[in-house]
Amino acid sequence: MKKRFLSLAMSMLLIAGMAAGCSSKPADSGTAVTDTPQATSAPADTQGAAEGTEGTIDGKGTSLTVLCHSSWRTEEANKVFDYVADKYNVKFEFEEVPEGGSGEEFIYAKVQSGEVPDILWFQGAQVSVLNMGEDSFAELSGDWTKDYSDIILESPKQTVNGKLLCAPFGDVTTFGMCYNKKVFTDNNVAIPQTWDELMAACEIFKKAGVTPIFTSGAAGNEWTLQIFSIDSRAKMLLKEQGIFDKLNNHSAKWADDEYSNWMLSEFKGLFDKGYTQDTFLSDTYEDAQQALLTGSCAMYPQATWVYSELAKVAESKDELDNIGMFAIPSKDGSATVAYTETPTGFLVPSAGKNVELAKQIAGALSSKDAMSVYYQNHSGVPSVNGIDVDLLGIPKDAYAMIQAGKTQSQPYMIYSVPSLATDIQAMLAGDKTPKQVLEGTDNDWDTYAKDNKNADWGY
Question: In this structure, which CATH number among 3.40.50.2300, 3.90.79.10, 3.40.190.10, 3.30.390.30 belongs to the domain 16-171+344-391?
Answer without folding.
Answer: 3.40.190.10
